[in-house]
Amino acid sequence: MEADKNESRGKVGSQALPAGQDKVDSVPHTPCTILESLPKSVKRRVNALKQLQVQCAHIEAKFYEEVHELERKYATLYQPLFDKRRDVVTGTVEPTDEECEWHSDREEEEELSEELKKKACVEEAKEEGAPEEDPKGIPEFWLTIFRSVDMLSDMLQEHDEPILKHLQDIKVKFSEPGQPMSFTLEFHFEPNSYFTNTVLTKVYKMKSEPDQADPFSFEGPEIVDCEGCEINWNKGKDVTVKTIKKKQKHKGRGTVRTITKQVPNDSFFNFFKPIKVSSDGEMDEDSEFTLAADFEIGHFFRERVVPRAVLYFTGEALEDDESFEEEEVEEGEEEVRAASPVCVLEVMEIIQEHLGFIGGVGNAFPCCAIGPW
């Protein structure tokens, strides 16, 4: 029986392979070696497939352009709801009892024991004579979100907080039909003693077209540049700079004088004066990383914070984000363990991409998530 099996294997092994197949099987299967080992006629056909792939990338780019148009259309439907959110937050409108009804899914929070109910009644009786505090709207709504979200709290400084107490709304505006793809973040402030602007803006420019030099890298629209705005600070109120005093000693006379000068200061409001993308695309590593982080923050405002603000205020969205990240990390760890040493770097890049990390490649940030919304 064993002899028959060996004979059978021998017959199979002696069968003629297709032309060039023996070469393909005899070398490691990397993209370069596979292509090099193919017969010329097969290479021609592979090139034809690549041409088809480029055409697919261009069709995909058109698809994302239409998605952008669809986002613009639905943004106009969401805006009345966001405007009402602003009015409730600022206290311009008081919601009705019906609008304030909300039934939580968490039974522990809804069903108080009789003992707790009685205790609550006693406390109410004690405080009945004292006037109940009724602040206007929802105080520090946006500031609370900034403090709660790690990505935003990292930019937040103590001297920014009094200013952000005046922030009333954040809006996302899409570019007009027929105009280059972009979106604008609008930060609306009530009159305050810090600056005269009522709206601060940040424009993110996008493109949805394959790179001619590397069309196969196309993964959807990219943020490719951004523009801030000038903040008209009142005298002595600019938190993006600080004044320092320096003593200088004259070399000859030995006299000492004190000079003052302004130097950059850490502040959230530096967000409105971003690094510019150089025309030749050449940037040092630090600038590239800073710009990539800026793109990520703009995308996060657009896709997460603005459409789901109340859930970031209550912390519910933070729980969702943390759960998602934990799942991604677990999956990523499994991939790394299974990967060969050659592929570990590529796998780590994939993990970082899924976790929201942005590389500096091309100074662009993929933002092909469809809708927040």
Question: Please, could you describe this protein's structure?
Answer:
The chain is an alpha+beta fold and 373 residues long. The protein has a single domain, classed as Arylsulfatase, C-terminal domain, CATH 3.30.1120.90. The chain contains 14 helices and seven strands. It has helices spanning 2-13, 21-25, 31-37, 40-90, 97-100, 107-110, 114-127, 141-148, 150-153, 161-164, 285-305, 309-314, 316-338, 344-354, and strands spanning 167-174, 182-189, 199-207, 222-227, 241-249, 256-264, 365-366. A five-stranded antiparallel β-sheet has the order 1-2-3-4-7. Strands 5-6 form a two-stranded antiparallel sheet. A hairpin with a 7-residue loop joins β1 (167-174) and β2. It is flat, with a radius of gyration of 30 Å. It is found in: Nucleus. This is Nucleosome assembly protein 1 like 4.
Let me know the average pLDDT: 78
User: What is the CATH T-level topology?
Assistant: Arylsulfatase, C-terminal domain
Which structural class matches the secondary elements? alpha+beta
N-to-C order of helices and strands: HHHHHHHHHHEEEEEEHHHHE
Q: Give me the Rg, rounded.
A: 30 Å
CATH architecture designation: 2-Layer Sandwich
Give the beta-strand count: 7
Q: Into which percent range does the helicity of residues fall?
A: 40-55%
Distance between the termini: 67 Å
Q: What is the count of helical runs?
A: 14
Low-pLDDT segments, ≥5 res = 7-17, 334-365, 368-373
Approximate shape? flat
Protein name: Nucleosome assembly protein 1 like 4
Pfam families: NAP
Subcellular location: Nucleus
GO cellular component, one term: nucleus
